[in-house]
IS66 family transposase (Thermochromatium tepidum ATCC 43061), 481 residues
Amino acid sequence: MERLPDLADLTHAEKDALIHLLWDWVTALRQEVVRLTAEVTRLQGEVAHLRGQMAKNSRNSSIPSSAEGLKKTKSMRKQGSRPPGGQPGHSGSTLKQVAQPDHVVDHPLPEVCDVCGESLTGQATTEIRQVFDLPPVTMEVTEHRIHALRCTCGKLHRSEFPPEVTAPVQYGPGVKAQAVYLTQHHMLPVARTANVLADLYGVPISTGTVQAMIGEASERLAPTVARIADAVAQADVAGADESGFRVAGKLNWLHTAVTDTLTWLGLHAKRGKAAFEDFGLLYRLKGTLVHDGWASYRELTCTHALCNAHHLRELTFVHEECGQAWAKRMIDLLVCAHHETVAAHGQPLTAQRIQAIRTHYEAILAEAAAANPAKPASGRRGRTAQSVPFNLYRRLRDHADDVLRFTTDPRVPFSNNLAEQAIRMPKVKHKIAGCFRTTEGALAFCTIRSYLATLQKQHFDLFQSLIQVFKGNTPQPNFSG
């Protein structure tokens, strides 16, 4: 290192030059410290963000549990809130003996005692055991014959086949209903469905025939599903959700709109406004729409309610991973308010209680605001990225009426679980198949699934209903719900 000269040997000009040199060094060092401090702050933010991403799971974010692989998930439900086994009021499904069995097999006693050889006389006691089993099922072929005869006057008389008998050889409504029931309700792949029908019933059916049956069911059900969409649009309260769906190798979106008794599913290449406009359903909705707060739903002119299941998961993340106590207090408030609305059995809470919940809610938000000041503008184009806790606080603040809508309107649910459940089974179908190979197949699935999910909510016998569909007598659900 170069040795500094003795100050006593320096001239006044040299001293001034040295001072300027030292000042330049100090200035450069200060600038470097500022730069490194900013870099450390940025890297600390990135580390915190990445740690937060790694810490997210199905319990504290919107990540589905299926994306967590074999990792054991932890439920948000408190232990003991629903103990194992049948719940109170559940009828159960234990086998019970019937008074009139289909077959009786008598097992008689021997005529003599195998010890002393004496004849067995007297009145014997009887013990009964019943075995429930399926009878052998085989293909049943019904032959239809028509006749023709010419009268002596010259007129030809000819009888007619039933309207549903259109080909020399065809499958009946039972086989068609079974194929559609297995593929569209129980989510079996088409090839496996064909194998099941062959193994269980001896039905030699091809995958192409199964696909044709699905297409026929979709065509027959389209008018009913259109009425389901109209009924949802007229509902006082509906829930909506959407999820990615791969069709023919491309990303599409599965949209759903539901009520307590109705389910509608639709497929579109777009996720937001374009899909809403093409479907038309949500733009006609004048009641309350429950959703997850996605911006496209905000553009709808209806009343809004936000899904609090999403909020509970995000608040759990802020409490457990970010160490902010206000989030736990907000969880407790929302859960307590939810329990109160459930206990009210559809009756509104009192005005005093609603105001007390709102006051407590705003007090917790004040704590959140103090713990999460907004980051100043960075000077770059676009909005400055804020922290996860700040973004959650801002949403809870800006849309407080929608968050607490369930406390002011007893018809509004606490969460959007109904809509999320409507998405769940189609995602199972999607996961089994990998993707839908054609748009036509995906659209048929949406139509049939809308019908079956609606009938399931209204406690119809799905298989028997499908048989009637193929007979031309489509059972109609209650559209007023």
In short: The chain has 16 helices and seven strands.
